[in-house]
Design a protein that fits this description.
35% helix; alpha/beta; 9 helices; hydrolase; Alpha/beta hydrolase
Length: 260
């Protein structure tokens, strides 16, 4: 794999932004790494970070580069600060950045596919919320989305953590129901739309403080008839779990056939 530490100006944010990118490389003599070639533009996973992390965290806490190399998969990891992947009422437009500007810029910089069947999104905690929001809002752009220990119920999250930060992010707490910030509403709308649906994957540890909201979201998605692979297991909100589970996500992705 090739590793890029990419810094660029964002028109959406009005400031310089950052992302880590890993790109497939076929190497015949590299010891301890399996590599793959698919031909054409690279299938791409947008991999999102959590509330207290940044774009470096997946590379620092997991072996995502090694895992992706064997699949011939590009991985784009953007920095979005504590934004909850939303356009703030009185702040930066992080939803516009991650949903519109970032993919366009990444494809202009690198040899990435723009085909729906080649694009996927995943994340943990806040990033799990962002991943589901992207795929449920834009099912025409993403073939699959995965959440690991995600914040699936934003209304519950803001009520459980009163304070100014969530007011900056979402404005009026009572105004989340039925809005584009509400994953439950997005799932309902997609199920009724007749649009092609992305595959969904959801995991949460049974001791995670986000377990109950994850169960509520799982039940809602299944009730609406969306295609969901659900998994759970012992453990809390930790990288020991996420390093293992991201490997499961990569195996689950509907990747195109590869050429070794």
């Amino acid at each position: 794999m090739a590793f890029m530490d990419c810094h660029f100006f964002s028109d959406s944010l009005g400031v310089s932004a950052s992302m880590y990118v890993i790109l497939p490389q076929v190497a015949k003599n590299q010891i301890g790494m399996e590599s793959a070639e698919r031909g054409g533009k690279h299938p791409t996973l947008y991999l999102l970070h959590g509330l207290s992390d940044d774009h470096t965290i997946w590379m620092r806490r997991t072996s995502i580069e090694r895992y992706a190399s064997a699949l011939g998969l590009a991985v784009v990891m953007p920095a979005v600060n504590r934004s909850f992947y939303t356009d703030m009422p009185n702040g930066h437009k992080y939803w516009q950045f991650v949903s519109e500007e970032l993919p366009a810029l990444a494809r202009s910089f690198f040899h990435l596919s723009d085909k729906r069947e080649d694009n996927y999104v995943a994340g943990l905690s806040m990033g799990g919320y962002g991943a589901m929001k992207l795929a449920l809002t834009h099912p025409d752009r993403f073939a699959a989305a995965a959440s690991l220990s995600g914040v699936m119920d934003v209304k519950w999250a803001v009520q459980a953590h009163p304070g100014d930060e969530f007011k900056w992010l979402f404005g009026n707490y009572g105004g989340i129901d039925g809005t584009p910030a509400d994953l439950f509403q997005l799932a309902t709308e997609l199920a009724a739309s007749g649009k092609e649906q992305p595959k969904l994957y959801q995991f949460c540890g049974t001791e995670d403080f986000l377990y109950d909201p994850n169960i509520r979201f799982r039940d809602h998605v299944q009730e609406k008839g969306l295609e969901l692979t659900y998994a759970e297991g012992p453990g809390g909100h930790s990288w020991e779990i996420w390093d293992n589970r991201i490997q499961d996500v990569l195996k689950w992705l509907p990747l195109p056939e590869k050429r070794l």
